[in-house]
Each structure stands twice: as structure tokens, then as C-alpha cells.
Amino acid sequence: VLTVDLNSDVGEGFGVWVGGPDDELLGVVTSANVACGFHAGDPTIIRRTCAMAAERGVVIGAQVSYPDLAGFGRRFLDIEPGELADAVIYQLAALAGIARVEGAEVRYVKPHGALYHAVGHSPQQSAAVGAAIHAFDPGLAWLGIAGTAASTVAEERGLRFVAEGFADRAYGDDGRLVPRGQPGALITDPATAARAAVTLGRAGVRSICVHSDTPGAVAIARAVHRSLTDAGLTVAAFA
Amino acid sequence: VLTVDLNSDVGEGFGVWVGGPDDELLGVVTSANVACGFHAGDPTIIRRTCAMAAERGVVIGAQVSYPDLAGFGRRFLDIEPGELADAVIYQLAALAGIARVEGAEVRYVKPHGALYHAVGHSPQQSAAVGAAIHAFDPGLAWLGIAGTAASTVAEERGLRFVAEGFADRAYGDDGRLVPRGQPGALITDPATAARAAVTLGRAGVRSICVHSDTPGAVAIARAVHRSLTDAGLTVAAFA
Amino acid sequence: VLTVDLNSDVGEGFGVWVGGPDDELLGVVTSANVACGFHAGDPTIIRRTCAMAAERGVVIGAQVSYPDLAGFGRRFLDIEPGELADAVIYQLAALAGIARVEGAEVRYVKPHGALYHAVGHSPQQSAAVGAAIHAFDPGLAWLGIAGTAASTVAEERGLRFVAEGFADRAYGDDGRLVPRGQPGALITDPATAARAAVTLGRAGVRSICVHSDTPGAVAIARAVHRSLTDAGLTVAAFA
Amino acid sequence: VLTVDLNSDVGEGFGVWVGGPDDELLGVVTSANVACGFHAGDPTIIRRTCAMAAERGVVIGAQVSYPDLAGFGRRFLDIEPGELADAVIYQLAALAGIARVEGAEVRYVKPHGALYHAVGHSPQQSAAVGAAIHAFDPGLAWLGIAGTAASTVAEERGLRFVAEGFADRAYGDDGRLVPRGQPGALITDPATAARAAVTLGRAGVRSICVHSDTPGAVAIARAVHRSLTDAGLTVAAFA
């Protein structure tokens, strides 16, 4: 039986500002990418998010980012690789310590936003992230896109790399994501997303992401979960 | 034989801005209060500071602070106790994780600046810091002034409280520090500081602080270390 | 005929995080307290907010704050008066320059959050804010609570002080606000708030605040505006 | 008689952290590039720096930057052009308002660090900076490298562009700066820098920059000033 994970970004508020529908999403997903304070999240939000994830048995991953609250980590930053590695370790450490206080632990890493894209093609930045993960805890999995600089670095470092697909994003004929901003790039119809997820799951993708800021994210996540189960796949965390 | 520790603040730069004479101080002190990024310190500085401390066998403590880079943590912030506790855990976790990567570990906590003063008299803020330390690692010692709210909370929490004295600050007849800004509050003469340190050490103070931003801090620290040794005390970390 | 102003806080998002219902509020209020980037607001949000206010003929005021994005300016900060004055000038200048680019101008100042309360009782902090306003533009009005340190300083500085009341907050028998957190402190029923506003307006209060984060703020503002007009008062900006 | 300006970066501290030798530099240069708070500088430092410049009759320029205190504005940030323009206006406005309070005014703009380089080659980012300067005050001059995207945009916008050269940096045979990090890129010998400055001044370069963080910056600036004068050039601000 094929097993597939469902992941989403949570804990993406800051101070008085709220993030996505974490409470509902954590009732559906099996893995939670928790913001660590560099693009979103503050100590109190992080702790509350870890407590919620722990209570529901959702596995916690570190959603590490460039230091860029003003830009929500969505802007490429030409940071020195050594400084990037240190920033990733800092975030991993902060999240892991808070998770532990809440009786949970961090089991994987998913770079966020512009860093997610950068580790897909930049040898320097992916190497920096790989070095950071390896130095902090070589038992952590790395969630990302297969066949990229990230997966190459993970392999070289002996890190477990878990390939993910996106239920709420369209793929072109070349198998790559249709860039945001192009027509049809975003899938907001739960049924369409659910079908896409089943296709991805049957193709062997180990984790499926539903973006928490996609309109109707909770409905999409629920439809995806149901369809995967209906299609005979087991929905369970990978880590 | 009496044993006394020598502590100083290190890692207090940020980005391009340098802090104190860490390299030289770490050659003299036995305990290093490492800034965790909230009043000073960034991931790269923290990592480098931990590496330097580890290399020289200096024990690492977490110098936790209000979130206030612009004010260097020297301004009282009326933060909610729960949020303060979370902020302290975040800092402890970040520093502990980086220290571990460098082969070291965090063994004690010393609140910084305005928080140092606040935990001396505010029941709420001292309780928050105590809760944070206890939640993160009840084996951590708490460095502060004896007979304050901080020491009371530490006792209630079952945390080891270590009393410190200041070699470079004058004490009034009431046994309290002469406030900064008053004439003679700051002792910059190494010989005078050294004599004061011997008096403190003989009185049973377990750790002596030399502020890294006192003019001539390195000379003071060296004079203090030498005088303590000459007076027959053992200079060694408490943690 | 009595004239009364209606003011509300706007521009209180940051980066991807949204603030209140600015678009709708700016269709009702006559004065907009625009966040300047220290507790909320970033350059793009500030510019867009100024453009919206200018387009609708809403008068712009500077909602100056302690530097505290993480705490939304709601936490008292024991900042040096000189540094507070400089921070206020920086915010006034930034907002005024952006407003000018959008064809508008800043006509008054309303301290935000914890600073609003501090200037009500702290002689040092109110003096600092008064010095800043006077230095930047002595023609700016100061919006606040009558009979406080703020109004005293304004008088001493020769600044126009405009007294405000709150439609969505209960007043005790002593004429002071019932503290937030106490039962009944917050008024969320539009009709009740509207009646309170009419009472305040008839009592000579020159500006009435509807908090943009009170649940149902837009409905409250609309009810207040309608009731004031129905009661024969003229709703118009004070500056 | 040829006239040449001498410019340097000042006000580049933050909070307790000090920047360069501003006091001495402001006694030598004719134009001061004042940091606006995004890569360095805080309200108090900005005000003090403006006061010092005003007292000595040094012309003030705005040293605008990416929002990146942690990286001192030296890291490329892929910010949206519209957001960059807004950020530049915010900085110009803040500095101009503070300068006015100190009896001075901002007369030119010099992008800082990575933004300085980006406006040299990025059509989008140079257009954004040009739009910001034009919107805020089309009378401001733009200081940068001749023959770049920056000078092109300035011309299109009708902004005065002032070409600068560097006394403390080596130029290759192609007339371009030898990249930092390559051997000989930095000139720290005052006499060598002074000769280079005379050559630049005679070639018609209107402003010569001495970096405030080059070792011996003050001695270099003094030597450059003296040599220019000895060579019969007039040292005076361009704005």
C-alpha cells in the first residue's frame, strides 16, 4: 500500500498578526512546517503551534527562512553561505528546543519561500542548508523537490530527502510547476486538487503540500485527505 | 580552599558591528555569558563565540534579554510574563543548539541588562524567567544577585542559584551597587577592582563579573584573576 | 452647531499581514491615524494608506509609537526621553514625506498604544513627545485625553491639543476609561456606541475614536457617524 | 578651475554600536552620505549626525539602502521595484525631516552597498530608485558611477546625476573597479590615494569618495583633500 504525507505551513503569524487557519489545518495534515521566527512566527506563536501539533500527533518540521520578516521570506537574499548555514542552525535549534518543551520534536526541514527556490538551483545555498542540517542533526529529513540541487546535496550529505508535490499548484508538460502569476498556476477547487493529489501519490510522491495561504486551504486539505484515503492510499507522516 | 568563577559578557556584536574584546576576555574568564540574538549577537557571531569558548574550555551561559536590539536590552519592557518566558526559551534553545554544534553546552543563564534588573525586583518577570529555565532545562544554573526576587524564584523552582558580585562596580554601605551615573560607580583601575574581587571571593561570592564594556576590561579581568590566585583562591567555573 | 471628528487607526498591517478594514473605515471617518512603521506599517502600506486617505479627503495624522513591531507598540518601553523624541521625529518625518508624495499632509499626532498611555501620566515621555512635535512642526495638533500630562505639555509648548473620547469603550463614574479586560470595558454594539458618541459630542469632545480592531468596527463607525448627524452635530475633521 | 567634492559615509552606527570616525571625517569631507536607518543609523544617531554636518557646513546626502540591518545592506535583495521605491521614499523623508529639524537639508541621494551595485546594472531597481527620488524631490542629485543604469535612469527622469570616483579603490585597465577581495583592490596608503584622487579630479570626476571603513580613512581623506588643493583644484560640495 502506498503511503503519502500531507504537509502545510503553520505558525505564520507575527505578534498581533495572525497567519493561516492553523487550528483546522492541524486537524487534517500529518506534517506541520512550523515557521521559526525569521520570516514569520515569534516565540509565543511557535510554542503554541508546537503544542497544538503535539496534541494532535502531527509531526513537526522546521520551516527555515532567510531573515526577512518584512518580505515574509519571499525575496531572494544573496547571503553568504556560511551565514546562511548559521541562520539555519539558529532556527532549527530554537524550534527544536521549544518543541521539546512541548513534548514534541523536530523531524524534518523544509526551507521556506525564496530559500525553497534557491536551494533548488543554487549549489552554494543548498550546500549551506545541507551543512546546517547535517551539523545540527543528520537524522532530520529534508523536504523539497526531487531532482534539484537540494536533493543532490542531501544525497552527498547522507541526509534523507523526501520529495514533495503540490496539490494546489498546476504542473506543466515538463513536470515543473507553472510559475505563480501565470493563468491557472493556482488550483483552488478542492476536487481538482484532490485528483491531482491522488495522481501525485500514485506516482510515488511521498508528501503532498497544501499551501495554507491558498484560498480555501482547509477545504482543499480535507478533500485531498479524503480522496487519498478513498483511493486506497495511506495518509501518514513520512518522518 | 575557596573557589570563585570569573564571568564576562561576550558575543555582543551584531552584523558588521563588533562587541567587546572577546578574544582576550575568553583567555581570562572561566564563564562566558553569550548573547543570544535579542539584544546583541547574530547566528554567525553566536557560533563563532561558542567555538572560541569551547576551544578554551570556558563554560557557556545564556545571556538572555528582552527583544531590543535598538536599545541593547537596556530598557525595561513591560512584556507579558508568558511572552517573556517564551522569549527566554527561544533564546536558550537557539544558543544551546549552536553550542552543541560546536561541541559545547549551555550550563547557566544570566539575564541581561534591564531584564537582569527586572528579575531582581519584579515577581512576574522573575517567575517568567524561572518558568522558562525550568521548562527548558532544570539543570541550568541561574546567575544573579543574592537576596532578590530572582533567587527566591530559583529556590521555589528548585533551580541552582549562583550569586555574583561585580569587581568593576562600587558597593554602597548598604551592600548594594552604587547606581551607574553616580560618581565612583564604575571602577576602572585594575588594582582596585582586583582588591574588590578578593574581598568578594573571600566573602563567599561564587562568581565575579567583569563587564566587557568597562574601559580596560581585559586588564581588569587579568588583574582580578591574578589577585584571586595570589590570595589563595581557586579560579574555576561554577557550572 | 457642534462639530465633532471621527478618528480611527489605519495602516496597521506589516508586510504580508493585513491590519484592519481600512478601505471601509476610510469611507466613514474624518481623520485617519496612520501607523508610521514602528508598531505597524511598512513603506508600501504607509504609501497606499496615505493615497487612500487623500483620495477620500480624510485628514492624516501620525500614529507614532515605541519601536516594537513584535509587541504592536502595546508594551511600555522605558526609553530615554531624548531617544523617544528622536524616534517620534523620525516617524513624523517619514509619514509626512510619504503623505506629501501622495498629495496629502500630516496635520496631527496621536501616540499609539503604550505610548498613548505613557504620555498621559509620564512627565518625561510626554515632554519628549511634545518636544518632538514642536521641533518637527508646531502647527501639528496633538490628539489625546484631556487633563493629562499630554495636554499639559501641549499647552506649555503652545501646541493645539484636541481632546478625544472613545465610542467603543465604557467610562466609569469617575469619567475614566474602564480598563480593558474588565467586564463591559469594550462596547461592540453599534447602537450603544452611537449613543455614547452623541453624549461625548454634546459634551464638547472634539474627536471620537472608533478602534479599528474592535469587532464590528465598520458597523460601529457607521452607526456613530449616522447618530451624530441625526443628533444635529456636524461630523468633520478638526485639523 | 576644476572643482571636486569629497564624500564619505557617516552615521553608520546602530544603538550602542559605533560606526566610523564621523567626527573627524566631517572635518574634512564636503558631502556626508548619512545612513537612514535601513542598513545603519537610528533616529538618535541620524539626528546627531545631521547636527554635526550642519554645524560644519557639510552637505547632507541620503544614503538609502535595502532594509537589512543584519547584513549592513551589503547583500542583494530581490525586492519588488514598487516596494523598493517606497522604501527609498521612506528613508529620504525620514532623513530630510530630521535634517530640517537640525537646520539642514538633504541635497542628494547615494544608494548604499548592494543597492549601489544593483542600480548600476538592474534596470528595474535603478528605475525604482529614480522614481522614488523624482517623486520625493526632483531637485535632489543622484551620486553614482557614470555610464550605468543609474545614470541612464537619472537622465530619463531629468535628475542631476553626479559621477563619483574612489580614491581608496584600484581601477583596472578597463576603467572599472577591481573587485573587493582581489589583491590590491583596496588602497590604504594615503599618498597613493591622494595621487589617485588628483587624477580623478583632473579627469573631471565631480565627487571623490573615501570609504569611512577603509583602515586609516581619516588620514586618507586628509591627504586627498590636501593633494587636491595643492594640485590647484577647488574642493567643494557639488550640491
Please explain how this structure is put together.
The structure is a homotetramer of 239-residue chains. The two termini of chain A are 17 Å apart. Chain A has helices at 22-25, 43-56, 81-101, 113-121, 123-136, 149-157, 190-202, 217-230; strands at residues 3-10, 31-35, 59-63, 106-109, 141-144, 161-166, 207-209, 234-235. In chain A, 41% of the residues lie in helices and 15% in strands. In chain A, strand 1 (3-10), helix 1 and strand 2 (31-35) form a beta-alpha-beta unit. The first copy, chain A, is globular. The A-D interface holds A 67-68, 70-71, 75-80, 83, 114 and D 67-68, 70-71, 75-80, 83, 114.
Instruction: Please state the structural category of chain A.
Output: alpha/beta
User: How many E-type strands of chain A?
Assistant: 8
Mean pLDDT score of chain A: 97
User: How many helix segments of chain A?
Assistant: 8
Shape of chain A: globular
Estimate what percentage of residues of chain A fall within beta strands. 15-25%
Largest sheet of chain A: 7 strands, parallel, barrel
Largest interface: A-B, 24 and 24 residues
Taken in chain order, the helices and strands of chain A follow as EHEHEHEHHEHEHEHE
Measured as a percent range, the helix fraction of chain A is: 40-55%
Low-confidence stretches of chain A: none
Order of the strands making up the biggest sheet of chain A: 1-2-3-4-5-6-7
Oligomer: homotetramer
Distance between the termini of chain A: 17 Å
Q: What is the gyration radius of chain A calculated from CA atoms? A: 16 Å
